[in-house]
Amino acid sequence: METGLKGKNVLITGASRNMGRLAALQFAREGANLALCTSSKMRELNAVAGEIRALGVKAVAVQCDVADAAAVASFVAEAHKQLGSIDVAINNAVHRAEGGFLAESDEVWERNVAVNLTGPRNICRAVLPAMIERKWGRIINFSGIAPFLGTGPAKAMVKLGIVGFTRGIAREFAAHNITANCIGPGTFDVERDAFQKHKPLHPEQPIRRLGQPEECTSLMLYLASEDAGFITGQCYLVNGGMYFQ
What is the pTM of this model? Predict the structure, then answer.
């Protein structure tokens, strides 16, 4: 597939590891330049940026908490300064609210909303004006399987909320040749933080294995490509058949 991504500038949040890192490298292999951020893992992010530069394209690596609108504005301004524009924005940063609802603190709830909902809002508000001016743009957000299975009220709420947010962006900005789509991953073979449990396969999942990150990042490439210009407002579930939408 000819992606048309050579020379495009792609912003990815939460790009220090796992799908964010792999997506950044795949976009770089397509000839795209990258603007990357992480909230805390700068050593890992700088290593990713080094891998990208070794492929012959540009990389901007910035520490940025996506829940902080001022920090996001500064990050996007630096990306514009070094790259010239942002053509594709991928809201991959995530905060995982684990544990039972009644045991959940206000701080966990508020951080869950701040990163998973306010974060994509902050990124979109920062990148959309220039996309409108150039009349081209791609927004890619992340949902999940939680809202479709009713897994964890806090997690399910933000994952379903981002689907609604994506569809609102899709409708409002379609006239400017800007698309917005969502990806809902199932259970993938990725590195997890110490507090996260490695979840077993859902008993009704037909494909009896974990997903490989490449099976999701390849969809990011497609949705960012020229070929996907007629696709907007959709949520694609990449989950081994765990849930059929």
Answer: 0.95
Answer whether residue 170 is part of any domain. yes
CATH assignment of the domain containing 71: 3.40.50.720
Q: What percent of the chain has pLDDT over 90?
A: 84
- State the residue range of the domain holding 152: 9-238
SS3 annotation, the chain: CCCCCCCCEEEEECCCCHHHHHHHHHHHHCCCEEEEEECCCHHHHHHHHHHHHHCCCCEEEEECCCCCHHHHHHHHHHHHHHHCCCCEEECCCCCCCCCCCCCCCHHHHHHHHHHHHHHHHHHHHHHHHHHHHHCCEEEEEECCCHHHHCCCHHHHHHHHHHHHHHHHHHHHHHHHCEEEEEEEECCECCCCCCCCCCCCCCCCCCCCCCECCHHHHHHHHHHHCHHHCCCCCCEEEECCCCCCC
Any domain includes 49: yes
Axis-axis angle for helices 18-29, 214-224 (nearest 10): 50
Q: Is residue 4 part of a domain?
A: no
**139 in a structural domain:** yes
For 43-54, the pLDDT digits (tens) are: 999 999 999 999
